[in-house]
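thought: fold this chain, then report.
action: predict
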Amino acid sequence: MNRQPHNRPQQSRGARTQPHDIAFKSLYGFRLVVLDLLKIVLPQGLVDRFHPDTLERLPAEWLSPNLERRHGDCVWRARLRRGGSLIVLIEFQRSLDRLMPVRVASYASMLLLDLAKRGELDRGPRGRILPLVRPVVLYNGLRPWRSPLSLSALTPEGAGDWLDMTLLDMGRMPVEDLPAGNAVTTQVEVLQGGLARDADGVLERMAKRLGGPEHRELRSAFIQWVWQSAAPDLGADAALLEPELLRIAELGEVREMKTLMMKSMVDHWLAEGRMEGRSEGLAEGEARGRSEERERLRRELSALKLDPETAARVSKLLDQGE
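observation:
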């Protein structure tokens, strides 16, 4: 499957390649993110065939035939419902590579040889059988990917029964074509500048998918990646983003996040109201500005359609500012 180019990435991130890449790769060490990725890159029929709770991470380090140590990026395995297993070999790429199909094919071969040596091939009715292997390349480079996607495409006549790889051009794939409520979809939104266009929406979707105490470590990893990849592109707005990201890392609840966002608005209003009062030199000017701003915030609160408990908490915050 090849997603066609859509939007250009925002700008070069070469100056911070190392921390961004480390944070990016760490996300795919979490089962939830890998499951969300599989919902995007695999046919629905294959998604329905594997047991999500059997998804386990495998070593991504192998010995080549000449005994050189080779490192892949990320490998996960899941058991299929009618026997056998599925292995997804994930590679992260930031530059064009015409021989990428050769690289992933060599990794797949070394992976299968390693499983055979350890006696971990699947068991079939007539002996050991190979698992299904699906290489996936997550590409986030400056230029659209126009390199081959298969070994066949590298042959003179473009023919041959070779293992194809799936490529996701994350900087250009249409977000509207991706599933909602999906961690990888949110990641694509961030990569395509979503925080600059709709920070509240992206933060809300992030908190919904990654909420709850069981995902606290994943939230921290996701937020670290957001900060490394997006904050430098936001300029002065990054200072406003940082506290919200830290609060999501601690709470992970949309309700709590909205309350805190409203509280920051109230704090801002209080500061602005006091400054306005001083500039007019009149106490009544301050009181009038505070009253008008309070009513405006109440209208915005009503438009958010929060649940009753959250609405009551924010209303209390407004009352405390009187």
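thought: worth noting. Strands lie at 56-58, 61-63, 69-71, 74-79, 85-93, 122-124, 127-129, 132-139, 166-169.
final: tokens above.
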